[in-house]
């Protein structure tokens, strides 16, 4: 099905992304557990010349190599699918340490390190949306008489995605660029109380509602999910 529609490369990229993330998180959690119990397991961090080489390095190299090969040779099947799978693997290795290059510090097992899990979730969702051929703008109108309606739709779409970002829902806004309905729902719902939107536009009552909506109970649910996905952080 995906081969006939020209989406086989997108499928391979998504599979490479998901499988690599699952494998690398399993490995890093084993290594982390070994630090607490040195007798446990044989997996270790990679060191070259006494320097700890994070797995984002290998991810960046994979992204560069696969990108250059694709741009230079425009490969056909099965090489296009192979390069796509390697690209997905490189993206997973890189985004799994997104927090490290965001904070310029080794925060992998801290609360700040959960930004990496946010990046992984966004990357996986965008990959799935692209696989389903979701487009941020769709096909342009053939009839020039509907051109203004088309432009208005595109502007509305990107505006709702922008509102999501202003409301403190960055992952929703990014996914919403590819899936319009996600952006629309995120733009309608309450903003996070710490967001620019809430601070500038909400009165005391609505700000209190937002605080209850995104309060401790909400954060506990998010933390439980992130603990399951990527492991518990060492420090709050």
From TrEMBL:
Keywords: Membrane, Transmembrane, Transmembrane helix
Transmembrane segments: 6-27, 48-71, 83-104, 116-135, 147-166, 173-191
Recorded superkingdom: Bacteria
Protein name as annotated: Integral membrane protein
Natural source organism: Prauserella flavalba
């Amino acid at each position: 099905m995906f081969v006939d529609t020209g989406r086989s490369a997108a499928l391979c990229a998504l599979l490479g992304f998901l499988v690599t993330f699952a494998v690398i998180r399993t490995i890093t959690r084993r290594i982390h557990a070994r630090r607490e119990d040195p007798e446990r397991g044989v997996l270790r961090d990679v060191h070259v010349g006494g320097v700890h080489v994070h797995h984002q390095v290998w991810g960046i190299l994979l992204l560069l190599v696969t990108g250059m090969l694709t741009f230079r040779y425009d490969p056909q099947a099965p090489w296009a699918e192979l390069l796509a799978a390697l690209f997905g693997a490189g993206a997973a290795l890189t985004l799994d340490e997104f927090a490290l290059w965001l904070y310029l510090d080794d925060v992998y097992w801290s609360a700040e390190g959960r930004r990496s899990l946010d990046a992984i979730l966004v990357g996986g969702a965008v990959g799935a949306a692209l696989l389903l051929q979701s487009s941020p703008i769709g096909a342009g109108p053939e009839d020039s008489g509907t051109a203004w309606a088309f432009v208005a739709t595109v502007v509305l779409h990107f505006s709702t995605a922008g509102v999501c970002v202003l409301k403190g829902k960055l992952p929703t806004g990014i996914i919403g660029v590819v899936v319009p309905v996600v952006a629309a729902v995120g733009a309608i719902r309450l903003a996070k109380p710490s967001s620019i939107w809430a601070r500038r536009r909400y009165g005391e009552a609505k700000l209190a509602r937002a605080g209850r909506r995104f309060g401790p109970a909400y954060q506990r649910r998010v933390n439980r999910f992130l603990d399951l996905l990527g492991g518990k952080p060492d420090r709050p």
